[in-house]
Amino acid sequence: MTSLEKPDLGTSTVRWRWPSVHPEGYKFAAIAALVSLALFIFVAEWLGWIGVIITIWILAFFRDPIRTTPKDPKMIVAPADGLVTMIANVPPPRELVGEGGLGTEPVTRVSIFMSVFDVHINRSPIAGTISRVVYISGKFLSADLDKASEENERQHILVEGKDGMRIGFTQIAGLVARRIVPFVKPGDIIAGGQRVGLIRFGSRVDVYLPAGTGAQVLLGQRTIAGETVLAVAGRDERIDGIAQ
């Protein structure tokens, strides 16, 4: 390639398409559809149409769109779609510390709240090996409360990159959510942005950034799982923004 040539950045061949539905959602949609049919036949037409709307909403809830993830090993991407509701310096959960895990010193935690209208497929913040998966039963407090990270039903996942960087993140069930569905287990090798699980229905994901790494997102910002860059390893510069 000569100095006057530019690298091929691709052509405009990417087109919007309907997102697929994760198989986990088909059984709920089927149940809603059968109830809707029964309402049409045995009760009242207007109730049947309400059932149809609920069926469509269930399919939308379990939508599983394709995401494009940057491959830079220093970039830590969002594991969830949703709203950044908390950014705080806190000690990592005890389930993620110890030998082969995170340290005990406080690190930056970014909390992403998923409403019932967000995509609920969660993705890995980095590429690497799943070294720990810890499920804990608990309460079902509103997921936007700070104490939900310690009291609610939750699942901790620890992934270690090839360079030794460890990222811990926690799926937290919320007020409406009643089940965390894992797609991975310890020992699995995953790509950055790969699907690791989902939470039904409405919830939160906490990400614990490595020591010396600060958030590159702002409170009130919306994230896209597998695409939004939450942080860059080793960068701890504060960023400012404005809600408008």
Automatic annotation (TrEMBL):
Location(s), subcellular: Cell membrane
Pfam families xrefs: PS_Dcarbxylase (PF02666)
Keywords: Cell membrane, Decarboxylase, Lipid biosynthesis, Lipid metabolism, Lyase, Membrane, Phospholipid biosynthesis, Phospholipid metabolism, Pyruvate, Transmembrane, Transmembrane helix, Zymogen
Enzyme Commission identifier(s): 4.1.1.65
Segments passing through the bilayer: 28-61
Modified residues (Pyruvic acid (Ser)): S203
Record note on cofactor: Binds 1 pyruvoyl group covalently per subunit.
Domain of life: Bacteria
Class of the enzyme per the UniProt entry, highest EC level: lyase
A GO MF term: phosphatidylserine decarboxylase activity
Subcellular location, principal: membrane
Maturation and modification: Is synthesized initially as an inactive proenzyme. Formation of the active enzyme involves a self-maturation process in which the active site pyruvoyl group is generated from an internal serine residue via an autocatalytic post-translational modification. Two non-identical subunits are generated from the proenzyme in this reaction, and the pyruvate is formed at the N-terminus of the alpha chain, which is derived from the carboxyl end of the proenzyme.
Catalytic activities: a 1,2-diacyl-sn-glycero-3-phospho-L-serine + H(+) = a 1,2-diacyl-sn-glycero-3-phosphoethanolamine + CO2
Cofactor (UniProt): pyruvate
Site note Cleavage (non-hydrolytic), residues: G202, S203
NCBIfam families: PRK05305.1-2 (NF003678), PRK05305.1-3 (NF003679), PRK05305.2-5 (NF003685)
The protein's role, per its UniProt record: Catalyzes the formation of phosphatidylethanolamine (PtdEtn) from phosphatidylserine (PtdSer).
Protein's recorded name: Phosphatidylserine decarboxylase proenzyme
Gene that encodes it: psd
